[in-house]
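tool_call: predict_structure(chain=1)
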Amino acid sequence: MDPEILRAAAAAITIIAATMVAANLNARITVCGFAIFIVASIAWSADGVLEGKTSLVVQNVVLLLINLLGVWRWLPRAGKEAGAI
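tool_result:
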């Protein structure tokens, strides 16, 4: 895969996820934002591996773990909101 395409996709995915989490419209959107952040972290890590950028890989592995925590914390709230509808 072309690194420029991977980088552009990772950046776009990151922007979408950040918008969803920052909007905090409801728990379902927030948890989806964290899940999309996971995809972005994987894409950025892949770019770091392809380009030999260890710091980018390490940063995004840590962010991946943080985003997994976000999904874990917000998923029960999303379930409760969905059950209340």
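agent: The CA atoms of residues 28 and 78 lie 5 Å apart. Proceeding to next step.
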